[in-house]
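Progress report, Aim 2. The chain analyzed during this reporting quarter is listed below.
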Amino acid sequence: MIIYVESKAFPYKTFLALVKPSDKVARIRAHLLHILYDIGQEDLQFKLRYKGQYLRDAFFIEDYDIPENAVIKLLPVARRNDTMLDIRSIASTMTVSVDALSTSGQQDVKVELFKEIREFIRREKMMRAFDVMIYIMFLATFLNLLTNYWYAFSWSAVLFVFTVFFRPYYNRCGGFTGNYTQWRFLYCIFYVVASVGVLGASLYYCCISWMSVVAHGCKDWVFVDDCSHKGVFTAVFFSAHSLILLASAILITLLFFNFRLEKGDYIEKFLVQERDIEQVMKSARSSKIKEKRTAAYELACMAASGDDNKFRIVAEGGLDVLMAMAHCDDDATQEHAVEAIGELLTIQSIQDNFVDMNGVQTLTSLLHSENSRIMQEAAVSLYTIVSESEENKSSVVADHGLDDLAHAAYQGTIYCQRTIASIYLELAFTSEIRAQMASRNMPAQALVHLCSSTDPETQRYALQTFELLAIESSEMICAQEELMEVLLDLPNKTLDEKLYLLAGKILLYYAENKMACEMLVNHPSIKDALTMFGRSQDTILQKVVTKIIFCMLDTKEMKLKARDQQLHRVLGYIRDNSLDREAWDMADQGIQAMDSDEDNLSTLPILSTLEKLNKMGDKHRFGSRTSLGSDGKPGASNSSNSSDEKRKI
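Predicted structure tokens for the chain:
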């Protein structure tokens, strides 16, 4: 498969990497290292990113769901002014000096790169030497006609045609080319077999020719009979021909083994190699910042490579060490330490141990980091905790955890905000935490900010959270005037009917509150928003729109305002186009009530929320958890698999 690599550092270049889905990300990096070497940028340090997530060398390409012809980003990593080892990924750089890595026992990536380049240069030279032999074979094929055994021309010609027609072409920069490149190994095998056969015939003719010449003796250098010029030429020719065939067979055999080397074979082994855990932990406890950076990255890679390594790290006291490194002053060390913690937390037993060690406070404090990457990794780790364990959720909200999440909701990147919204949603499913969230203003304001995000997933998670909080406290919803603006402006930003349904159900809580309902009916965007909601094909949403308008008819003043807003047209559309009988009846009753001059709307009693849900249909279909998943639990994109969700977020 072909992978395209783009970078702002090279605005006029697009790099190509030929890989297989079963290859590791390190293979892509190896291709790029070769390309950068060719363009004189071998000292460039870089990371790879696809759909917002940084790619780890030890992971397979298929782990990230990278398809054919995908475009990934190459992000240069700036050097540190202190000339220390700048490793946002030690395996992400090829400029790490041997001295800098000598304490950790690792080789320089450049050494492995140069080793591969030397092998490819040797391949190129051998191919050129083989080309010279082909020209000699061409000449020898026709010289067969001048020998005593002229019919040897036939098999020499067949060998020559096969050699030229199926020959693979190669140069170090462009790689293999030609129509039969994929058959290069078979080509080598067949050539060796065929050339050995021709070599046998040439040796036979060489021997009998020389035997004839020697037997004659060529007395007085008179070239007659068996010692004729033609006889001597035949002996010399087949001797030289045999040497050429032998040399070409040996050369093509060497090429056969050289062809087995592909770009990245040496580099990949280095990039994903693992050191002894005891040595890594020793470096992690060192006071030298270089060794800490190296150890933090290696722990992250080891934790990502398998569950056995996770338990080994914990057994060596890795959690304490990683928590300490997460609080150090070096951003690179912090980042990789949090990545390692996130990988470890995918194991439930390790997660429980981490919570008991008050590790959650470490993660929540990192939500205030100025480094967006550290903030994102900390948020992902917290999501792993809240999505996989009900018991550990309380540890996240303890000690101002909700305020820390709110800070990240404002300051984080779009991916971090999506993660924070997911955390809020998971927390809201626990009644005690939901009550705590509903009683505080900061989480609500943070959720309002998330609802105004341009990311549909973030909006969905935030609205689902508000839906759950509304069950706990409808007054808290009505107190959020900015939320009303966001909900009514939603149709101007998206056409997602699932978001419309969530917004409509939350607006229903505003409509139930007398003061909020007055604000709602006077809002200039109310007609446009309800019109868009009413035009949905979702009958539940149509019922919600109808009930919102019903609530606006409770007093004469609001009914007059509803007429001025022409909300009867919304009801008319629902009545004329709805496929649901109950929605049709409700819209028809609403139109009649709006046209009536009676002040007492006894036919339209104000129902409680549960009564409305029961009246409109199955409350489980209408309720909060419906929008999250068909089984009443968060959907697969929320909490089905924490490790997969960790990558996707």
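Residues 78-107, 600-649 have pLDDT under 50 and may be disordered. Residues 31 and 263 are 6 Å apart (CA to CA). These observations will guide the mutagenesis work planned for the next reporting period.
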